[in-house]
Amino acid sequence: MRRFLRALLLCAVLASCSESHVFTVKGSLIRSFYGDGIYLCDFFSRDTLAVGRFTDSTSFFIGGSVPATTAVYLKSASRRTSTAFVLEPGDIEVRQVNDTLFLVSGTPLNDEYLQFMGRTQFQPGDSVDASIRELVLEHQGDALGRMLWRGLAYSLDAQEYVDFYELLSEEMKSDSLYVRLYERSQRQLLSLGAMFSEIAGKVDGRSARLSDYAGRGSWVLLHFWAPWCKDCAAEMPALRELYDSLSRAGVRFVGVAGNDDSESVARAITRHGIVWPVITDTNGRESYSYGIVTIPTYVLINPEGVIVDRTTACSNLPARIREAMSR
Fold this sequence. Notes:
Elements: H1 2-19, E1 21-28, H2 31-34, E2 38-42, E3 48-54, E4 59-66, E5 70-75, E6 85-87, E7 90-96, E8 102-105, H3 108-119, H4 130-138, H5 143-153, H6 158-165, H7 170-173, H8 176-191, E9 200-203, E10 206-209, E11 219-225, H9 230-247, E12 251-258, H10 262-272, E13 278-281, H11 285-288, E14 297-301, E15 307-311, H12 317-326
Parallel strand pairs: 1-7, 11-12, 12-13
Antiparallel strand pairs: 1-4, 2-3, 2-5, 3-4, 5-6, 7-8, 9-10, 11-14, 14-15
Helix pairs in contact: 4-5, 6-8
């Protein structure tokens, strides 16, 4: 009887091990970026799954097991990084190229994504490439698809999101986060054709309102951004060129910088050479009324104060504005 119980217990242990996903994650990082600690965290819940260690000045190692394949990222004690990858059985290697670029390989899904990124070229200011959407649809049932969809969901404008959401499986659609984004996108689309909502804040330290500029006989381009937003910074040179050409055509630019303090906004205005008025919305409440999901976002208001278009890409603004002005 005892032998039987021991055998049964051994089988249970072996079964539990077979259900776990044993992994190692190792590679080289910029040590100063992490300090002395490195952690492996769940991409969705942000829970810490494992604690790693540095084996020399740049190399690190993390080992362990998880119940199922999932998406993860690396972080230090104080900051999260852009190291999103799939934690699956096997030996995963991470190489940090710079502060934002990490190359992850060694297991099937990570190798596939690395090869995909090597084949695909993206231009600054472009909306998310259609090939990423195809990859999400192809991997809807695994961790790679769920990881990419989380990033993609916040990169699409309202119409793109609604159209793509309809292509997803019922399981992907049912996530409460994406349901909320879908409902918000629907509200954004319904706002087209409606009068602009008031935005109150400060411009150069003085109280200002959007109604000081919009609904007064001129076209107005609203630019939602923030000083900490890297994508916003990348589009600023193109936006300044666009301002030079469109201001001569009678289009007024108004920036809305949200969720930041006035001093950091003032420094960013100087750094980027912004010459149009920027309303500082320190609590983000005014931006929320426009259903802003991602920044930068651009909203076009006609001379009567009606919202006629919105987009998240600076590159297609000239064509969209010309089309709207010609109607």
